[in-house]
């Protein structure tokens, strides 16, 4: 895997071996960013189930100012740290080594782009978006990008957000919520 485009474009990304994480393929990541961007003029990213960190690193590569990555798995945290070092801009990234639910209680400020790719899909996505809205962690122009199995059906509206775009890429479905 590699960073698809932007300042870090072409640089390799490490991923975790095994089934504890499901890294988003270069092809799906590229298509996802073409769907939502493809480039940004600043902003703050939250990746609540970071895995290898590829999505948030790609977002910063494409113009986001900073990213908060949340990951509970220790082996994945080590991979994320390596991938952040690869950017040579460590100060743009903050890794929270904890469960997503725990992280939501610690976060402050607002996020312009949120990635949700939880291991248990729909139930976590609804709860996470609801809590992000209740805690006022989303900017007015926020995009919440959810990656699920293509068979998962997410609600048309969650809290203050509604589906803006939805596309299927192979076995994955990408659903984007906005205000």
TrEMBL record:
It is an enzyme of class 2 (transferase). GO terms for molecular function: 16S rRNA (guanine(966)-N(2))-methyltransferase activity; nucleic acid binding. It comes from the Bacteria. Residues 1-23 are annotated as: Disordered. Keywords: Methyltransferase, Transferase. Residues 14-23 have a biased composition (Basic and acidic residues). Its EC number is 2.1.1.171. InterPro entries: DNA_methylase_N6_adenine_CS (IPR002052), RNA_MeTrfase_RsmD (IPR004398), SAM-dependent_MTases_sf (IPR029063). This is 16S rRNA (Guanine(966)-N(2))-methyltransferase RsmD. The lineage of its organism: Bacteria, Bacillati, Bacillota, Bacilli, Lactobacillales.
């Amino acid at each position: 895997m590699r960073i698809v485009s932007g300042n870090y474009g072409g640089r390799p990304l490490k991923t975790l071996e095994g089934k504890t994480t499901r890294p988003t393929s270069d092809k799906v990541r590229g298509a996802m960013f073409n769907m939502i961007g493809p480039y940004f003029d600043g902003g703050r990213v939250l990746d609540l189930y970071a895995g290898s960190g590829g999505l948030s690193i790609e977002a910063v590569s494409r113009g986001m100012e900073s990213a908060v990555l949340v990951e509970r798995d220790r082996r994945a945290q080590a991979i994320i740290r390596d991938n952040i070092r690869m950017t040579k801009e460590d100060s743009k990234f903050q890794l929270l080594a904890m469960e997503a639910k725990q992280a939501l209680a610690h976060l402050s400020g607002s996020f312009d782009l949120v990635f949700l790719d939880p291991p248990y899909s729909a139930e976590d996505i609804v709860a996470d978006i609801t809590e992000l809205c209740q805690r006022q962690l989303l900017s007015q122009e926020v995009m919440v990008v959810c990656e699920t199995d293509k068979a998962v059906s997410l609600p048309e509206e969650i809290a203050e957000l509604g589906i803006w775009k939805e596309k299927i890429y192979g076995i994955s479905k990408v659903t984007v919520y906005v205000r």
